[in-house]
Structures are given as C-alpha cells and as structure tokens.
Amino acid sequence: MLTALKRIFRSSWLSFRRNSGSSLATVFVVVMTIFAITFLFLFRGTTQFLISTLQEKVDISVYFKTEAPEEEILKAKTEISEIPEVRDVEYISRQQALERFVQRHKEDPLLMESLKEVGENPFLASLNIKAWQASQYEQVANFLENSSFKDIVKKIDYYQRKPVIERLFSITSIMNKAGIVISAILVTISFLVVFNTIRLAIYNSREEIKIQRLVGASNWFIRGPFLIQGIITGFFATTITILLFMLLCWVFSPKLETILTDFNIFSFFLSNFWILLLIQLLAGIGIGTVSSLIAMRRYLKV
C-alpha cells in the first residue's frame, strides 16, 4: 500500500513537472482566486474597523425646548437608554453646549462676537444618542417621535443626518456584495482552468494509461496521480498566496496606518494567520481536488 502511494505521488509530480507550462498557468489562476478570497477577508476586516470607527462618530441628537425641566430630560434619557437598539445616551445641558461651542470656536473672533451680540445662551439642552448599528437609527427616531416626552422635544436631527447614515449602510452592503461576486467569478474560472489542465494531462498520458490497464493496474492507481496533481496545484497556490500576502501586508501596513489610525493590517493578518491559512488551503486544495474529480469522471474511463 505504501509503495503504491509513493508511486502515485511520484507519477503526479513527474506529470506536474512534465506539463510545467500548463501547470504554472493553472497555479497562477488558482493563486489569483485564493488572492481574491484572502483580499476579501482582509478587506472585510478593514472595512469593519472603518465602519465601527465611523459609527462611533455617527449619532443623532434630540433637542428639548428651553422651558423643559432638567428632571424631565433625565427621565427621557433613562427611557431612551432602555431601548435595545441604543448603545449610549449622553445628556448635554444648555451650559455644556455653550462651553463646548466656545471651546471649539474660540479662535474665530467673528463667531465669538456674534455670540456676544445674542446676549443670552442660544443653545438647547439635548440628548446625544448612539445606536449599535447604523441601520437602527430610524427605529430610534420613530420611538422619539412617538414617545411620552414628545411634548418637550424641540427637534430631532435624524432626518438631517439620515443621508449620511444611509450612505454608510449602503457602502457596507455594496462592498461585501462586490467582494463575494468577484470571488465567485474567480472560483468558477479556477475550476475551469484546473479542469482543462487535468483533461490535458489525461490526454497526454493516454498511452501510459493503456499500458497500466494491460498490466492490471487498479482504477485508483490510474486515477490517483491526476487527483494528486490537482492537490499539488492547490498546495503550491496556497503557499505562494500566503507568502505574497505576508509580504504585501508588511510593506503596506505603515502606509495604511497613516490613513486608518489604530489599525495595523500586518498585525490583523498575523492574528488571523491560521484562519487565513485554513481558508486558503480549503479554497486551493478544494478547487484542485474537485476539478480533478470532475475531469476524471468525464474523461478518464477506467
């Protein structure tokens, strides 16, 4: 049994080397597919970080009438905090709003002069609300419009911020769908290329197959080298891709960190190395094995 396996592996390797041109082309196409799948994984991690960062900055505020008692506003804060979609609620008093405005615009003499002209504090008390997901702000806004404290509410700025929130949600969906479609297309192309490579290998080995049949070789002894050839293709493609991505992440990590502060793509790659390697092995060897089995079933009649 062990001797037969050694012969199958040796025959597979010799066939892989003999058809080096088509083998390398096949490895290249499978590399492109695994590259796209790996890129999608890293891109998803990057976009999730970016989206979570943006979501930290996206919020809605509910402003209360000037005459609204503070205790009523604090009751409203407690009520809003109990909504499952709400992650955090911050109360900003009129005085705090004024202080923040002054701190932010103290270098702008025109605005400071305008504020003095007004005389009194023009700002309203508000509750700054953050939801868990960008898609949940509409539910929060609907709750605020029909709440028990709606009579003391001056305005809700959700509808002014709605285009930004919806845009964020839309970009996320489009990015994920585009990545899945591109990966699916490349997987299909890889299947076809590996399939045709194995078909060509079967055609080139037709005389050897006839001789093996005549000397009584088993079906799997004949089929084995073509199956192993598909696995070898997937293994080489996986090895090349993981090394290529390691190099790219290491090179581009400092540059990306200047754009995405607090996110290091190389650290993310290393922390997910084993998951990525497993995904790549499943993709590469899976494509090679399945394509080989289909090609053998169709063209190798033993």
Could you explain the architecture of this structure?
This protein has 302 residues and is an alpha+beta fold. The chain folds into 2 domains: 2-54 and 168-299, no CATH class; 59-161, Alpha-Beta Plaits. It contains 11 helices and 4 strands. It has helices spanning 2-18, 20-57, 70-81, 94-105, 109-118, 137-145, 158-204, 206-214, 219-259, 265-271, 273-299; strands spanning 60-64, 86-92, 126-131, 153-156. It has a 4-stranded antiparallel β-sheet with strand order 2-3-1-4. The longest helix has 47 residues, at 158-204. The protein is elongated, with a radius of gyration of 31 Å. The two termini are 20 Å apart. The mean pLDDT is 76.
How would you summarize the topology of this molecule?
Elements: H1 2-18, H2 20-57, E1 60-64, H3 70-81, E2 86-92, H4 94-105, H5 109-118, E3 126-131, H6 137-145, E4 153-156, H7 158-204, H8 206-214, H9 219-259, H10 265-271, H11 273-299
Antiparallel strand pairs: 1-3, 1-4, 2-3
Helix pairs in contact: 1-9, 2-7, 2-9, 2-11, 7-9, 7-11, 9-10, 9-11
Short overview:
The chain is of the alpha+beta class and 302 residues long.
